[in-house]
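Thread: Newbie trying to understand structure tokens

Hi all, I'm a second-year student working on a class project, and my supervisor (Dr. K.) asked me to get a predicted structure for one chain before our next meeting. I've only ever worked with sequences, so writing a 3D structure as a token string is new to me. If someone could post the tokens and maybe explain what I'm looking at, I'd be very grateful. Here's the chain:
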Amino acid sequence: MRLFITILPPQEIKEKIRDITRLFYKEKRNLTFVKPEHLHITIKFLGNNVSKESLDRIIEYFNLYKRKLKKASIEFNKIYFGFKGETRPTVLSCLVNKNKELDLLVHTVHSFIKELKLEDTGRKKDRATLINHMTIARAKPTVNRNFKKKIHCILEGVEKKKTSFTANSISILQSTLTNQGPVYKEISRFELS
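---
Reply by user tm_fold:
Sure, no problem. This is what the structure looks like when written as tokens:
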């Protein structure tokens, strides 16, 4: 199974993101929008081939130690096209502002996975390079460089308002890749203290 540990935004955040994506609809032939019900912030990619046994151990471990998982403030105020250093951006996303609460949650989740020493999960220390973000659209592979300029022009007109919520839970999501894009299914949810 292809699995992630994620933060799922509340409905009002999904609605705000939906309203923002409408500004990009004139470019929809070059973008694939993430459905509002699929919006999430990845805090740990577990792997492409995680076994049912490993998943069960992760769920058991997280349930046993969930009191160590603390709520985190999530705040973003800007939408970006691509990530720093990319010459051919492919992702339109809301970047999450770093804060101590979120860093602690990410660190705890990564530590839990490392402590389990599972062979089929990503145990490497990737939190140092992790850019917390919520993907709202992906560029199709056929776009040209002029498209990047068009997106940046639209972004200049987007009102820069802080949007925030408190992450009260984290979820394990299964991602199944299809020709129509990824399909997500929530496998388990853990309330944060």
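A couple of things are worth pointing out once you decode it. The chain has one domain: 3-191. The chain has a mean pLDDT of 90. Feel free to ask follow-ups in this thread.
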